[in-house]
Specification:
The chain has 245 residues and is an all-alpha fold. The protein is built from ten helices and no strands.
Length: 245
């Protein structure tokens, strides 16, 4: 309720400033304002689709990278550490530009802006996911592994049925934070022409010359998305905790 009150207060504040500022460009009661709002909101689909696709890929890759880091062999641990350190050291904006403009020249594979953005976001986030999974798995007591061995479970089944379900419960808040991070970082894909929320806002600013008003609506759009995702993560966390009891 407090968040809704804040949003309503902000809306009232913006309406009160309409005499001095050009809020008519996003006024839903006018034809032009309603069209502008629809144009901006239309970018939400690409933002959500790109973020969700990237987070799914990054979780899978992160888990695959995390497992070698738990190995007793130095070579596998070195692979994990090298991957994590290199990927985390590259700024995500630079990675987006490199994947879109550089990767096709090296591989001969042409990527559209959507898949270039997804690949760059997933690759960047996978290093963080690897560390999250590694920490979550290492937090499981050794007795769980010993119990799995006592009933003759192999390594794959031990991870699948015993270790990972417990680890995921513990790292769920961190995974939720990464999804929020992904939603925000997806705005950087606008530099290569992805028609998501930020790109739509930039195009509207060019035509309407009202950056303050348009970017304020953009902030509210991201705020609503983040609040919805955060609420969903908390709900899922409560469900998992209740099922564990």
């Amino acid at each position: 309720m407090k968040r809704i009150f804040v949003l309503l207060s902000l809306f009232v504040f913006l309406n009160g400033c309409s005499g001095n500022w050009g809020w008519y460009v996003v006024d839903p009661t006018t034809t032009n304002g309603a069209n502008n709002l629809r144009f901006m909101i239309s970018g939400a689909y690409n933002t959500i689709l790109m973020s969700v696709t990237a987070i799914i890929i990054s979780v899978i890759v992160g888990l695959l990278v995390a497992l070698p880091g738990l190995s007793e062999k130095k070579g596998w641990r070195a692979f994990n550490r090298t991957y994590v350190e290199i990927v985390r050291a590259v700024p995500i904006l630079v990675l987006i530009l490199w994947v879109y403009y550089g990767l096709p020249q090296l591989s001969g594979i042409t990527l559209n802006v959507f898949w270039a953005g997804v690949l760059a976001l997933a690759l960047s986030d996978s290093a963080f996911q690897a560390e999250i999974f590694r920490g979550g798995i290492q937090s499981i007591a050794k007795g769980q592994y010993e119990a799995a061995q006592s009933i003759s479970l192999n390594y794959r089944d031990t991870m699948r049925f015993i270790i990972l379900p417990q680890a995921i419960r513990r790292i769920l808040p961190a995974l939720g934070n990464q999804l929020v991070y992904m939603l925000k970082m997806s705005s950087l894909v606008s530099v290569i022409g992805m028609q998501e929320l930020t790109r739509k806002a930039n195009e509207l600013v060019v035509s309407e010359y009202r950056p303050l008003e348009i970017y304020t609506i953009l902030v509210l759009e991201y705020l609503v998305l983040i609040l919805i995702v955060s609420a969903g993560v908390r709900w899922l966390e409560r469900r998992l905790n209740s099922s564990e009891i």
